[in-house]
Amino acid sequence: MKESSFQIPQMDCPSEENLIRLTLQDEAQIASLDFDIPNRILTVFHTGDSQTISHKLERLSLGSKLIYSRESTPTLQKEHSAQRNILWTVLLINFAFFLIEVLTGWISGSMGLIADSLDMLADALVYGLSLIAVSAGLLFKKRVATLAGYLQITLAFLGFVEVIRRFLSPGDIPDFWMMIIISSLALLANSLSLFLLQKSKSKELHIQASMIFTSNDVIINAGVILAGIQVKLLNSGIPDLLIGTIVFILVIRGAFRILKLSPSP
User: Which among 215, 213, 261, 203 has a CA at the least distance from the CA of 83?
Assistant: First the structure.
C-alpha cells in the first residue's frame, strides 16, 4: 500500500472536497482519502503508482501538486469505519424525527413543525449522500445528488405555497403545546447528533460540515419552541408561519448546496 500526499491550494469548501471524491471514487486502486482542509492537503492511500491520481486531480484545476509518494499502511480505515457508523446514526435520528414532525405538524396545524421536518429530511439526504457505497458509479452519485436537491426544492416550494394560503385564509391557531414538546424532543435529538459528531474528532470536511448543519438545526429547534410560546402569548398563528418561512428558506439553500456537489462532467 502506498501513501501519496497532494497540496491543493483551492480546496477550501465542501464543494471542492466532494468534487475530488466524485472524481477519484471510481479508481479501484484507492483504499481511502484523508482531507486536511486547514492545510489544503489531500492524502491518498492506494496501490499502484500515483500518476493516474495526479492527472485526475490536475484536471480539476485546483492547483494540485504531488508532495510525496511512499510506502505506507492505511491506518485510517478504522477511523473511516467509525465515521460511517456515526453518520448512519445521525441519519436515522434525522429521518425518524422527519416522520415524527411531519405527522405532528399536520395534526397540530403547525407550519413550523412541518418546515423543521423538511429540514430534518434535508439533513438525512445529505448524510445519505455521504454514505453511498464507494463502489457506486460516478454517474449514479451525480444522479442521486441531483434528485435529492430537486426533491428538497420541490418540498420547500409546496411549503411556501401552504404558508401563503394560511396567511391569506387564517384558520385555527396551531397547537402551541405540541409545537413546544415536539421541538424540544427534536432539540435533544440534534444535541445528541452533535455530540456524536464532535466525539469523532474528525478533520474531514463532510464531518465538519455535518456538525455545522446540526448546530443550525439546534438553533432552528429553539426557534420553533420560541414561535410556539409566541403563538400562545399573542393568540396568533403568525409566529408559526414566520418560523416556517425561515426554515423553508434554509432548506432551499441546502438544496442548492447539494446541487453544486453534482457538477457536470
Answer: 203
What span, in angstroms and rounded, lies between the C-alpha atoms of 50 and 265?
22
Is residue 113 domain-shared with residue 34, that is, in the same domain? no
> What's the CA gap between 244 and 162, in Å, rounded?
10
Final residue in a domain of this structure, among 43, 66, 89 = 66
Length of the chain: 265
Q: Is the full-model pTM beyond 0.85?
A: no
Using 50, 70 and 90 to split pLDDT, how confident is the model at 7? very high
What letter does residue 90 receive in the DSSP assignment? H
Gap between the Cα atoms of 139 and 113, Å rounded? 35
What domain range is 18 assigned to? 2-66
Q: What are phi and psi of 69, to 5 degrees?
A: -145, 125
Supply the pLDDT for residue 103.
Answer: 94
Strand partners, 35: 42
Taking only the tens place, the pLDDT of each residue in 58-87 is 988 889 999 998 887 555 555 656 767 887
- In this structure, is residue 181 part of a structural domain? yes
Q: Which residues contact 185 (CB under 8 A, 6 or more apart)?
A: 97, 100
Q: What is the CA radius of gyration of the chain?
A: 21
Q: For residue 73, is it within any domain? A: no
Cell triple for residue 131? 454514505
pLDDT at 147 > cutoff 80: no
